[in-house]
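User: Hey, my collaborator sent me this sequence without any context and asked if I could get a structure. I don't really work with proteins. Can you help?
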Amino acid sequence: MTADLAFEYALRDQGYAVVAGVDEAGRGAWAGPVVAGAVVLPLERFDLATGLAGVDDSKKLTPAQREAMFERICLVAAAVGVGSASPAEIDALGIAPATRLAMRRAVRGLAAAPAHLLVDYVRLPEAGLPCTALVKGDARSLSIAAASIVAKVSRDRLMAALDAAYPEYGFGAHKGYGTARHRSALDRVGPSPLHRRSFRPVAACAGCAPPVR
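Assistant: No problem. I've predicted the 3D structure and written it out in structure-token form, which is a compact way to encode the shape of the chain:
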């Protein structure tokens, strides 16, 4: 399955001139924010698919490929938005509501106001816009695939930057996801302010002494 523009063109033909693809990254991580990307593609461009050749579900791409595609998306897209929800918001709201919050923030960050949203799997009624939730949307819609890359690259860059502040956890390597190294660090020094304390692997270490700064 390769992402294409079939859904976008169908919506355009129904009168939705501006369609935004929306996706998230970091939903399952133990630390760091959940980050969402929103992308509006210029559907009037006849060479759009060619200009975005190689853009696909971010999970299918290598880090180097994602970085290259991120730069291309930013050049080609009519608008790009990024939004996030913090670990504290995730703990207070739950991961599903926090993910929707990050998505709404990404949509609000778009320079071009969308008339319809294409979202990977998640329904987004809080956005107050017509919305189509697509199962495996990042593999079916080019707008969602582009949004998945924007979200993933944006979050990975943030976690790599935070690695310098919290070097004991190895965020630069695993980006806050669950690995043996990450679990060992939690057992050794306890959770940091970046950790989602409502997540079971982190909550199991909540009684550990916090890291000394």
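In plain terms: The radius of gyration is 18 Å. You can pass these tokens on to your collaborator as they are.
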